[in-house]
Amino acid sequence: MEDRIETISRPAPVWPSYLVLHRTGELAAKTLRARRLMEDCRLCPRDCRIDRMHGRMGFCRSGSLARVYKYKVHHGEEPPISASRGSGIVFFSNCTLRCSYCQNAPMSHLGRGTDLSPGRLADIFLFLQHSGCHNLNLVTATHFVYPVLQALELAVVRGFHLPIVWNSSGYENLELLALLDGIVDIYLPDMKYADPEVARTYSAAIDYPSVNMAAAEEMFRQVGCLRLDREGAAHRGLIIRHLVLPHDLAGTAAIMKLISGRISRRIHVSLMSQYLPVWAARQDPLLDRPVTGGEYQRAIEALEKAGLSRGWTQSPPV
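and the corresponding structure tokens:
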């Protein structure tokens, strides 16, 4: 990635605010609220309204236990997320979207993974901390927020203290984000589409653009712009990811304008060129090829035209 980051002050380390919530009992209260949301499931914008605590499954096809595909020390995230010692990444199975070009289809579409108790999940959190990671990076955890918070409570008692990264599709409702306020330190959402019909076609979510923008605005309200610690690792803030798609299906220029106009020009944007035609995309004539160098260069120009100078770009496709 080419680093387009501007100088950011690097203060002394700041303890995650969820430690304060734990001491005051608010973390336990949030965990209980998460359970109630799962009992009449409205954790995501699908609003399935089914009782997942007692065996029913909605759009995400998930039960009451967190299903984990894999976890590891990861060095391939944006520079302040991986930093020098890596990000402790946990990939959760299943998803609230149905992206036809999903690069994680075995876990997101097919649901491969292992159901874990909150205690076992807490063990993983602590293992990643003991491995020296800068943060705990929860990937696609929206539909498992209740067992995640259960595990966090157990881990905190045992000394867990890493900043939490909420790494998501950006398809989040405001009720869930209110629950995460004070727990999540770094939001890392996607902004996938500007056009509702494109979102419907390729991710089965016609409301994605409006839901996604409202979510990003709330994330920014909670954590603000990116801030780094003395090691150059993120300890708080919002980073928005945008994957450039062939034929400008994502509507890159419109998304850059929205970020600049409705959130902030100081937001860090990770502009990604790594699209590949996988999963169902291989049968779609508009998605069955990588992004061209020209398409990605136009995306960079849209980023710059919107006045977004902070973040990262990748090497143009060959």
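(Above: one complete record from the training split.) The two ends are 15 Å apart (CA to CA).
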